[in-house]
Amino acid sequence: MKKQLSKRIVTIFLVIFVICLLILTMGGIAMATEHLSMITTPVFLLKGDKIISQGTGFYYVLKGSSQNDILFLITNYHVLTGHSPEEIETPKGDNIIFYFHKNIQNPGDVKEIKYPLFTKNGKSIWLCSKKYPQADIAIIPLVSSISSDCEVKGISEDWTKGNMRIRPTSSITLIGYPYGYYDKKNWLPVWKTGSIASEPDIDFEGKPLFLVDVSAFPGMSGSPVFAIAYGAYETIEGPTTIGHVQKFLGIYASNEILREKKFLEEINSKSSKLGFIEDKSLELAHIWKASLIINIVKEIDVEKYESEILKDLIP
Questions:
Q1: What is the DSSP letter of 86?
Q2: pLDDT greater than 60 at residue 306
């Protein structure tokens, strides 16, 4: 009996040893790198060849039934234009630069793409929500040929279907490039964490968004937002279970800013006239919901987009 038990223990240890050996020999950095670190890209807005600003974008895949999968670059409207959807202004740029990973085992090997924002006839190439035109979301269907020599990772609608219960105070993660800061050698983004600060299933102020309490910075606009659990988590049905979940919740757009009026008397002056207005961040971020992105993608008329936009892009 003791001999049989000893043999089983030895067998178990051998199996564990072989698994660890396979991980060490086959994994390398590709095994150590999270899938979600590979789906994002810095997005640089340019006027001609001059960089104006930088934000974040990520890749989304619409899985086709009878046709090939369609790849999209998703970011904020203001990342592509330099102003919010509610402001009537001329776009500040005319093209963008973003990147694809060419080799998953070597994330630092990337392909730079310079992409026009307008066709030769002046039509913008991005798509927005028709139902919520104020939503700070811009979606670009990408020409398949530009990524044919790359190993592109993205997310799809399936990433929104995790069984994790999301509620106020639930932990969330934003993945992006704050002030353009990231691992430039390996071309990998920064992960920042926070927590949900409003009822996620209710549209905040009637808009399809919710709030998160997070310290976010310029350059992270367009970051995808996820609820992530390694280990125990609460399910939608109620009971707690154990597992690994990464659930796509939406896209970070902006922070809530409080415009506080300061009077001169508050800065040791005898006058009571208005002196200046000070902007204060509440560190509450607006997250446009994933369902809005899914609906925009599903409403795209692919044939119309190809005939009106893709065939008329400036080379």
A1: T
A2: yes
